[in-house]
């Protein structure tokens, strides 16, 4: 490509290890980096406004062409801690669920679990701003990202979506991956993959520069998030995408 590659990423705590290695890396000479929330950059990738994005995997069916260009992702092999259904009552007493507007994948995963695993008859409510104060009584809420870590201190009932997916399918889950909407130069992909892996090898340094009192980030980065995009994670991702093709789930 003659121009710089346009790359978009999410500014959540869980992306800090993936972005850590970009600073002062040669790949920055080849790219422009912008930040936003997952659903926003997903739309930018769909619309062709960016070339590569760390996007919710639920958008894959909406892309005319897609390539996973890195060996790292936002994944989980057990409880992820930051993508949860929060409630004041047990699962079977929930009547309505407020949906987080920031991530298509988390909403789609919740609907898979509600329909296929928990078998709940609930009403889903879309949101476009803060809604955590509505999580009371029989009204629950799907909360993701940094706000989800804060909500852990508020809600008595916490249903971790990744943990329940693993129980349901015996496979890990991929929330987001580095995806391009076109073929990119091999030299760029090699440098990009190298840069995105540096922080994964330097978790103590990432934790040190992101002080966070709400939740232990060493636990979060090492035990909750699982960054390598393994064959098992790819299998879990394909299983999830299969559910997305069932219209009533999405």
UniProtKB/TrEMBL annotation:
Keywords: Lyase, Menaquinone biosynthesis. GO terms for biological process: menaquinone biosynthetic process. The keyword Lyase applies. InterPro entries: Menaquinone_biosynth, MqnA. It catalyses: chorismate = 3-[(1-carboxyvinyl)-oxy]benzoate + H2O. It holds the Pfam family VitK2_biosynth. Belongs to the MqnA/MqnD family. MqnA subfamily. This is Chorismate dehydratase. The lineage of its organism: Bacteria, Pseudomonadati, Bacteroidota, Chitinophagia, Chitinophagales. The gene is mqnA.
